[in-house]
Backbone:
């Protein structure tokens, strides 16, 4: 029963994350974005028709509608369904790996924040401060309450993570004369340092780099303009998020 509950909650939260990602593009600032999370009511992005409750059932409505709006027949984003099921799957995996309700809540927040950051960076190429900075502070607070790491390790992780990626970003700018890494990636790596400590940062960075190479090769394989994909700038946030999640549940 608990597994089913976690799966259902994961789908509901995944649906909310999809809404948050979708409405991020509508806002000019963070206050507008937070307001857009509450209104207007969910509607089709093409015909603007307000959706009814039976068209908003996470994990089911998209399938029943066959991926199309029932009013204008325009396709609904497949990523909506994918995010709902990924969120559900991750929370179920977490349920099996972690004991204790309080720890479940902490790790669930960790997982969902990484998922939201990865989806926003994938779509818009940005990792907003309104998410990365609270994520960093949450890591420091978590360790201060549960002593998984010492405060020194957590603070050192945030500091080393920030400085390491900032050095790479600035070094690339000086050598190549172009931006190779955004400071959103720098802040996300610092946040992962706060959650994991400085000692695990090399593993996270190497794993993220490996995932990034594999992901770029996979995308270029299925993309017509292969050369353009190989040499274009790809968002690194999703790979950092996946690496952080994997390391968390391997080392937990």
Residues:
């Amino acid at each position: 029963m608990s597994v089913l509950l976690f799966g259902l909650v994961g789908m509901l939260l995944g649906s909310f994350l999809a809404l948050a990602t979708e409405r991020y593009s509508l806002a000019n600032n963070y206050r507008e974005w937070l307001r857009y999370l509450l209104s207007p009511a969910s509607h089709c992005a093409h015909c603007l028709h307000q959706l009814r409750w039976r068209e908003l059932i996470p994990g089911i409505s998209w399938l029943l509608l066959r991926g199309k709006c029932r009013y204008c027949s325009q396709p609904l984003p497949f990523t909506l369904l994918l995010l709902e099921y990924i969120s559900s799957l991750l929370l179920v995996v977490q349920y099996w790996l972690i004991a204790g309700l309080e720890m479940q809540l902490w790790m669930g927040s960790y997982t969902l924040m990484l998922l939201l950051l990865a989806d926003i960076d994938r779509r818009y190429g940005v990792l907003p401060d309104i998410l990365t900075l609270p994520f960093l502070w949450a890591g420091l607070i978590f360790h201060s309450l549960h002593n998984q790491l010492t405060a020194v390790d957590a603070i050192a992780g945030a500091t080393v993570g920030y400085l390491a990626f900032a050095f790479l970003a600035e070094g690339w700018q000086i050598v190549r004369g172009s931006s190779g890494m955004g400071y959103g990636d720098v802040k996300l790596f610092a946040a992962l340092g706060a959650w994991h400590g400085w000692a695990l940062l090399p593993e996270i960075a190497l794993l993220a780099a490996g995932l990034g190479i594999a992901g770029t090769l996979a995308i270029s394989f299925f993309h017509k303009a292969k050369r353009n994909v190989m040499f274009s700038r790809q968002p690194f946030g999703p790979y950092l998020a996946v690496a952080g999640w994997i390391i968390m549940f391997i080392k937990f």
User: Anything to note?
Assistant: Residues 144 and 151 are 6 Å apart (CA to CA).
